[in-house]
Amino acid sequence: KKTILTGIKPTGQIHLGNYIGAIKPALALAQSDKFQPAYFIADFHGLTKIHDSKEFKQLSYGVAAAWLAFGLDPNKVIFYRQSDVPEIFELNWILSCFAPKGLMNRAHAYKALVDQNNQMGRDVDDGVNMGIFTYPILMAADILLFKTETVPVGKDQIQHVEIARDIAESFNHHYGETFVLPQYKVEEGTAILPGLDGRKMSKSYNNTIPVFAEPKRLQKLINKIKTDSLPPEASKDPSTSSLFTLYKEFATFAEVENMRTQYEAGIGWGEVKRELFEVMNRQLEEPRAKYNELIASPETLDEILLKGAERARAVSVPFLKEVRRKIGLSV
Ligand code: TYM
């Protein structure tokens, strides 16, 4: 079976962008019997940012609970913590010897930090640890170790998947066909879910809506979503409205069509926000309850994740041996 694989890093509360961009499409793909899904908590990636052990642990459990609350079936999906599969890290080193430094210089996340430093007149390397710099190599190891064919992600991760492909090609060129060349799969329409301020919803922009926010807070956050200042009676364009983008994700087809008509006829933003809250809360209520239950039981989460890591290692240990043999290392 072909592997589909994706990860989420524990650097904040799971937000709507993570859910719409990655969790929801990944769980839909997991329904198909054609694939072997492997979904994981990218805690080594999270370590590039979070250096408070208690918070870090809590955030990791949060990501695990979120996947499960949305219906991930650990019997079907190989579900694990990245740091419980040491072969990933071993492959990380091997791949780093095939990753041109120039390629890393061009990686978006690193470049964004450097650009920011330049803009603020700081030293270019301010606040940049080597984990951030080599981040795409570790991600390539995540993907290539499991012969991943498809990586369902949001648009911001496309470059990383392309880097994994480049590194795999370079390795294959030296040692013969070893790694499968992965492809990304991005949902059209919600490739970039907007946040409160209209920019990409992102932990680094502080504009997120946590997917499991309690109803009152959820409503408050929805009310904060930036809109233009058109009066209620003015006709509005759904295609440029963050509220509509979000509404589409949670409402039924009929509700969406109805909302579209209301946009054209003229509807006040306050009313749109109320209706958005209704449909969102309707869909999130159940997973939220499940999430709260799971988060209160870290032993259960550990048990599930360790079992998942065992399944992952049943694949990664023999494959890494093959890689070592090809390179000329001892096996
Ligand atoms: P992370 O933790 O930043 O985000 C997890 C997933 O959520 C998607 N996403 C979004 N999608 C649409 N709109 C948004 N506003 C939005 N914000 C986040 C991301 O695209 C991602 O799919 N490097 C990865 C984690 C990772 C990984 C991997 C992913 C590590 N190894 C291997 C795939 C395969 C990351 O930082 O995701």
UniProtKB/TrEMBL annotation:
Catalyzes the attachment of tryptophan to tRNA(Trp). This is Tryptophan--tRNA ligase. Keywords: Aminoacyl-tRNA synthetase, ATP-binding, Cytoplasm, Ligase, Nucleotide-binding, Protein biosynthesis. GO terms for molecular function: ATP binding; tryptophan-tRNA ligase activity. GO terms for cellular component: cytosol. Its EC number is 6.1.1.2. It catalyses: tRNA(Trp) + L-tryptophan + ATP = L-tryptophyl-tRNA(Trp) + AMP + diphosphate + H(+). Belongs to the class-I aminoacyl-tRNA synthetase family. It is an enzyme of class 6 (ligase). It comes from Halalkalibacter krulwichiae. PROSITE patterns: AA_TRNA_LIGASE_I. One of its GO terms (biological process) is tryptophanyl-tRNA aminoacylation. Homodimer. It is found in: Cytoplasm. A motif ('KMSKS' region) lies at residues 200-204. A motif ('HIGH' region) lies at residues 10-18. Its main location: cytoplasm. ATP binds at residues 9-11, 17-18, 154-156, 193, 200-204. L-tryptophan binds at residue 142. The keyword Cytoplasm applies.
